[in-house]
Every structure is written in structure tokens, then in C-alpha cells.
Automatic annotation (TrEMBL):
This is Uncharacterized protein. Residues 161-344 form the FAD-binding domain. Keywords: FAD, Flavoprotein, Monooxygenase, Oxidoreductase. It comes from the Eukaryota. InterPro entries: FAD-bd, FAD-dep_Monooxygenase_BioMet, FAD-dep_OxRdtase, FAD/NAD-bd_sf. PANTHER family: FAD-BINDING DOMAIN-CONTAINING PROTEIN-RELATED (PTHR13789:SF215), MONOOXYGENASE (PTHR13789). It comes from Scytalidium lignicola. Belongs to the paxM FAD-dependent monooxygenase family. Pfam families: DAO, FAD_binding_3. Residues 15-46 form the FAD dependent oxidoreductase domain. One of its GO terms (molecular function) is monooxygenase activity.
Length: 421
């Protein structure tokens, strides 16, 4: 058990975050609200970002809403319903209503465009309001090396930058895990490809063959994603790779005519190769820790990539509240204790898919007893949506540091309560 935290407010840590995506900016918000000085280094210019709609489930939305997320600015849409159906007949085999999600799980189920969401996280991290100093962002800063022992990074121009802590939030191709493990451990291509495209709602409504698939409720754009097994190997996760409408029509030739009619309307198809990496034994070494896809990349079958990054951010911010350079190693151990089991299970559940229950069970038994592994869509929803990372992290810290208390300004308002722990 760690020693009790002094009542004297500690000096802020200087934290370096690599990556300006969802993981990077959400972690920056959390670390800023924990009272630390945060600087982000992002390789891109953030002015040519693309992406698609993502879901933010209750396990993550409870925290970001408590941070003051502006739903209008981020153009958030609250989910009403989701279902799974057979592509050949459109016959539903699992239907889930989201109208009572807040009542059941303490927070809503949201949809948002990745770019809009990232812009809003950036605003929350860098604006003048709220606890702590605004986060400083350096763009077009390519990190070529992590140095865990000294808490340093090296940029492409040879510049060495050092902080009290470096947080790698630079995605599936991050070299941070290699620096942490001391061995090459790249994400590898799977046999799956995602095809994504946007279609104006008006184009679907005006065609009788597709109007049955959408509601005339004022929405302007429909986001489509198709997953398919493929022999094509692309070793880089790239949202910009162009796909072919003719290829999709051939792949899905036995699908319901309404779905084929939707595909025929697609004009700009992007194909996104899905990459895989098994859970790793640790996420930190020295003064370096990895979060999000840099630590635990996962396939999209459970829609949890962004959500697990947000859980990481909240947990790390809570754990680092009141941290000093002297207590940092123990705090990172506590962070891993809170996060690695759940995130590793989410990797297993996401990578296997619910149609591979036997394989999933074998892999998941490393982390939880087999009788606790979700076995149905409803059990998966409860396991995923019902988790309360705020309560988990706070309770753990109160045990480790009996005099520790989370700052009242860490959140703007009290987060919705989850189902467990």
C-alpha cells in the first residue's frame, strides 16, 4: 500500500503526451484537471483529418459529459435503437432499444463523428476555463523514439524533450510498447477489411427501394460501415485507402436488394484494414505509459476502441491526482491494476466477435472465471455499458492512499453512476 498523500498541494507534474487523437486529448483533459502541466505533440496538422461516426457508450459518456462536453458543438446524436439483422433477408435477430440507457446505466448511448468529437475534446483541453493550465499543442511534431528511463521523446529533427511522465497516445502503430517491452511487437493485419462511406439521407428517402431503411427525422447524413473477410493484406491502418463500389457489389451480391441499392449510391468508399495485437503484459516502464490503441488496439466488433481510450484517460487522471515524481511508479502500477484486465478483456471480446464464443472463452479465462464471461448480447451490453471507471479508480485510490481525495474540480458535475463495481 502506498503512503498517505500529504495535505500540501504537490507541485504539478510536467506531462508530455504523444498523439492528438481521442486518446491524447481525453488524457490531456484528465491530466490537466488533475492539476498537471500538459503538452501534446501531434505528428499531423489536424486540419485534414477524416473519419466516420463512432459510438460513445455509457461507460465513457458518463465522464465526458461530466467534463462539460458541448453536445451541440460536437453534433452529438443520442442513440435510440440498434439491431442486428441477417444481410440476406434483413430479418432481425437482436434488437436493442436505447431510450432507457441513461436510466439503466447512468449515462446515454451517443453517436458522433470522430472529427467533431476530437475537435470538442481539443477545445476542452485547451480553453481557458476549468481546472489547471490550458494544454499546449505542438503540431507537425513527429516522434521517432521513446526513452522510458528518462521520460524523454526524440523528434524527427533530433530534438530531445523530457517530462516527469510521457504518455503514448499515438495509436496502433506506436513504438511505445516496443520501448516498454524491450521487444518488437507490431500490430499485424487480420483477414478483415472495413469499407466505409457516407450517403445523404435525401438520396435514400427519395428511392422507394431504400427509404424503408431510414427515418425522415431531419438527419442529413447516413454513415455506412461494411466488414468483410479478405485475402488482401494492407499492413498499415489507413482511413484514406480508396475502395471500389463494384467490389462491394460483388462481395455482397447475395444481400437483400435494399442493401445493394444503398451500395450503388456510394460515391466515395474508403477501405480500412483491421489490425490486431494480443494483450500485452504491461503498459508502462520507467516514466513512460501507453494508453488507447497504443496500449490495446482492438477490432471494431464491440465498438469499444474510443470508449476504452476514454476509460484509460479518466482512470489515469484520477490516479495521477496528487501524484509527485516520487510516487509516480506506484501510481502507474495502480493505473495498470485498474485498467489492464478490463481493456485486455475488451480486446479479446472485440477481436473474437460474438460468433466465436469458444475461442473467446478460452482467451478470457486468463483474466476472469469462465462463468463470469458474458454469453449473450444482453450480457455483453451490461458488461460494457454498466462499468463505472470513475468509481473503480476512486475506490482503488482511496484504498491505496487513505487520505487521498479526488479534487472537486476534476469534473464539472457529478458523473452518472454505473452498475458496477
Amino acid at each position: 500500500m502506498g503512503s498517505a498523500t500529504s495535505f500540501t498541494k504537490p507541485k504539478p507534474l510536467n506531462i508530455v503526451i504523444v498523439g492528438g487523437g481521442i486518446a491524447g486529448f481525453s488524457t490531456a483533459i484528465a491530466c490537466r484537471r488533475a492539476g498537471h502541466n500538459v503538452t501534446i505533440y501531434e505528428r499531423s496538422s489536424l486540419n485534414n483529418e477524416i473519419g466516420a461516426a463512432i459510438s460513445i457508450s455509457s461507460n465513457a459518456s458518463r465522464s465526458i459529459l461530466a467534463w462539460g462536453l458541448d453536445s451541440v458543438r460536437a453534433r452529438v446524436v443520442e442513440g435510440k435503437r440498434s439491431y442486428r439483422a441477417y444481410g440476406t433477408t434483413l430479418e432481425k435477430f437482436h434488437d436493442m432499444q436505447h431510450a432507457n440507457t441513461t436510466e439503466v446505466f447512468g449515462a446515454p448511448f451517443l453517436f458522433v463523428h470522430r472529427l467533431d468529437f476530437n475537435d470538442e475534446l481539443r477545445r476542452l483541453a485547451t480553453n481557458d476555463k476549468g481546472e489547471g493550465k490550458p494544454v499546449v499543442v505542438h503540431l507537425k511534431s513527429v516522434v521517432t523514439k521513446y526513452i522510458p528511463e528518462s521520460g524523454s521523446i526524440e523528434l524527427a529533427d533530433g530534438t530531445i524533450l523530457t517530462g516527469d511522465l510521457v504518455i503514448a497516445a499515438d495509436g496502433v502503430h506506436s513504438t511505445a510498447i516496443e520501448a516498454i517491452l524491450g521487444a518488437h511487437n507490431p500490430a499485424i493485419p487480420t483477414d478483415q477489411m472495413a469499407y466505409r462511406f457516407l450517403i445523404p439521407t435525401s438520396k435514400l428517402l427519395e428511392d422507394p427501394s431504400t427509404s424503408q431503411l431510414v427515418n425522415d427525422d431531419g438527419n442529413e447524413i447516413q454513415n455506412l460501415a461494411l466488414l468483410q473477410h479478405t485475402d488482401e493484406v494492407i499492413g498499415v491502418e489507413d482511413w484514406q485507402t480508396q475502395g471500389s463500389r463494384e467490389t462491394l457489389l460483388e462481395i455482397y451480391s447475395n444481400f437483400d436488394p435494399a442493401l445493394l441499392a444503398v451500395i450503388k449510391k456510394a460515391t466515395d468508399i474508403k477501405k480500412w484494414p483491421l489490425l490486431y495485437r494480443a494483450p500485452v503484459s504491461t503498459w508502462h516502464k520507467g516514466r513512460l505509459v501507453a494508453v488507447g490503441d497504443a496500449a490495446h488496439p482492438m477490432l471494431p466488433h464491440q465498438g469499444q476502441g474510443a470508449n476504452q481510450a476514454l476509460e484509460d484517460a479518466v482512470a489515469l487522471g484520477i490516479v495521477l491526482s496528487g501524484a509527485t515524481p516520487e510516487t509516480l511508479e506506484h501510481r502507474l502500477q495502480v493505473f495498470e491494476r485498474i485498467r489492464t484486465k478490463r481493456a485486455s478483456l475488451m480486446q479479446i471480446f472485440s477481436n473474437a466477435g460474438q460468433d466465436q464464443m469458444e475461442k473467446m472463452g478460452e482467451d478470457a479465462e486468463i483474466y476472469i472465471p469462465r462463468n463470469e464471461i458474458p454469453k449473450s448480447p444482453d450480457e455483453f451490453v451490461k458488461y460494457i455499458f454498466g462499468y463505472d471507471v470513475v468509481r473503480d479508480a476512486t475506490q482503488t485510490m482511496e484504498i491505496e492512499y487513505p487520505s487521498w481525495k479526488l479534487s472537486a474540480t476534476f469534473f464539472d458535475k457529478t458523473p452518472g453512476r454505473g452498475v458496477y463495481p
